[in-house]
Automatic annotation (TrEMBL):
Its EC number is 1.-.-.-. Residues 127-149 are annotated as: Disordered. It comes from the Archaea. Residues 236-383 form the Acyl-CoA dehydrogenase/oxidase C-terminal domain. This is Acyl-CoA dehydrogenase family protein. One of its GO terms (molecular function) is oxidoreductase activity. It comes from Halorussus caseinilyticus. The keyword 4Fe-4S does not apply.
Amino acid sequence: MELLADDIVPEYAREVKHEAREFAEEYIAPNAEERFREAEYPHDILEAGQDAGLVAQDIGEELGGRGLDVVQMLAVAEEWFRADAGIALSLQLASFGAEIVEKYGTDEQKEEFLRPVAEGDQITGLAVSEPDTGSDLSGMQTTAERDDETDEWVLNGEKYWIGNGVEGDWLTVYARTGDDEDNRYGNHSLFVVPTDAEGYEAEHIPEKMGMRASKQAHIVFDDCRIPAENLVGSEGAGFMLLAEFFNHGRVVVAGHGLGLAAAAFEEAWEFVHGREEFGRTIADFQAVQHGLADMRTEFESSRALTYRAAEKVRDGDNPGLWAAMAKTKATETATDCAEQGMQFHGGRSILTDRRIARVYRDVRIPVVYEGANEIQRNLVYRQS
Ligand SMILES: Cc1cc2nc3c(=O)[nH]c(=O)nc-3n(C[C@H](O)[C@H](O)[C@H](O)COP(=O)(O)OP(=O)(O)OC[C@H]3O[C@@H](n4cnc5c(N)ncnc54)[C@H](O)[C@@H]3O)c2cc1C
């Protein structure tokens, strides 16, 4: 049974999907259990992904990347997340937020910051969430103030949960540059912040129960100074640029859900066909067969919706609505499939070295990041 079948994937995205599968089979799946246990950043696998031309390749060809579009990034995501979500997240976050700089940055910013990421010499990340604010993008408190004497921006505040906050070379940082209560969506701006800037401090957040082969940071900006030209786009446009970016990114997060749901289904299928009780395999019980049938049906519906959404996002056809529907459906299918897969594993479900136990913990995360699913439902309602 081929769950991540090619037929639904537009033809032009199949080649990179096959490359991603080959890479996953060689580098991700065989290391998944060990890397989950160790909870270390997978530097060597990231490097292999850069050498294979699969990391940060959403960046355009003129800047050294392959210019993979959202459908192609989705095809890569489902393959990698099926193999292991923690390692996959580390690989996919290497260019998180770079798209905003590519679309709205100056030529100088693109050459200085994007080219090294596309060429595999640097990695980046996107710093939005804060210790006291997550879902409310217009409520973020980190500030950036202009110092006209030195022609710099001065950042103060904290960020939390930031992928590559420790490992990255620079980040796209979302900070408050205004305080207009009548215009909550015009108070923030985006900046390129090198992680070696004075006043930038980052440490890893405490151990996580899921996606352990990915690392996130707690960042403190203490009078962190960056050149005036590191503003991305125009002052006050940060909220709008970010909202547009997430419309895009969320359909790839749906791919995280698809990969995880496929992993849960495969594990459940294999287990119930091998485990015997009452003198037969448990797959002979109709209740078990129905459980698997429901998992498969939900998986296929989610995948159909997600690929449809990806094409809508690519074509700019009501992207926010489609990305939010796909993200909600696919990530919740992953939690449902993991829950059923655990039940079918009986007591063995809680053995920590089991793939199903890993998947069960990993599925908790895509229902939250890039906007909790409640926020997605708000978007679906409003945009319907
Ligand atoms: C592994 C991981 C990696 C991450 N990587 C990054 C990263 O690289 N960069 C970054 O900036 N952030 C990152 N995040 C942060 C992530 O985007 C936030 O966790 C997410 O936006 C939710 O914010 P919060 O955790 O503060 O939850 P809160 O905003 O405090 O929300 C908690 C819960 O309250 C409910 N809720 C909140 N608002 C509403 C509402 N309006 N309506 C109904 N219910 C609501 C939901 O159930 C929600 O789950 C990451 C998070 C994780 C777990």
